[in-house]
Amino acid sequence: MRRAFALLELLRPWQWLKNAFVLVGLIFGHAYREPSMLQAALSATAAFCLASGAVYAFNDARDVAQDRDHPDKRGRPVARAAVSPEEAVTLSALTGAAALSLAVWTGWMVGAIVAAYLVLSTAYTLGLKRVPVLDVVAIAAGFMLRLLAGTLGIGIEPSKWLLACGFLLTLFLGFAKRRAEIGRLEEGAGRHRPVLEDYSIGFLDKAIALCAAGMVAAYAWYTLAAETALRHGTGSLALTLPWVLLGTVRYLYRLRLRGGGGDPADELLRDPVLAASVAGWIATVLWLIG
Asked: For the domain that residue 51 is a member of, what is the CATH number?
């Protein structure tokens, strides 16, 4: 039982919350009332959960030496020797194959998108994560593929506004994570993640501010656009903007004053105000367009 738990832990199921990105298009595409669309979106989400688990297992196998010297990562299954690196790679391959099988069963487009995600994530683990800025862009691109799986993959026309806001949001979170890592690890940051040697707090603060401002501006423009009102049958989506502002500023507060910001899923589970802002945004969106 303990071994089975260690293998499951290697896939980090608590991080699968991030794959809810796949479902965003279902809501804004007004397709959640169609059983076939809902089933396809849920299957695509499950495929991404398996795919992201495969990526985590492969990454842990590759970074075992660094993780054992990391104050937070040393408790991971491979780092604490509960699972060997070879077993982690095997689990990664099996889980990745299961993800692709489920994705192809959902639709050939979803299969292609999940395959692209696995290729991108492998490239990230093998080298892209050591290239400043490109490392964060690669992570953001992975979230864009999630959005595309839940729109283009299941037959929903993706909104350019949805893609723009999603890309800026994930860039914001990515740069915030790098800043949190530097603050947490201090002088040893570069030893644990080499790319951090090429970043500075000043640069990251500017990148975070730029992405946050761009994200809020793009979302505000989207809610006020005439085409949005026509598409959703309401001109009141601007009522969701306060939730977006609350969530963004609260995340910045956690990052700058509470030593948080390293893991969006963890922050969401730990901070009730941040969780309330996300829940409030979802509830308001569903109320207005549902």
From this structure: 1.10.357.140
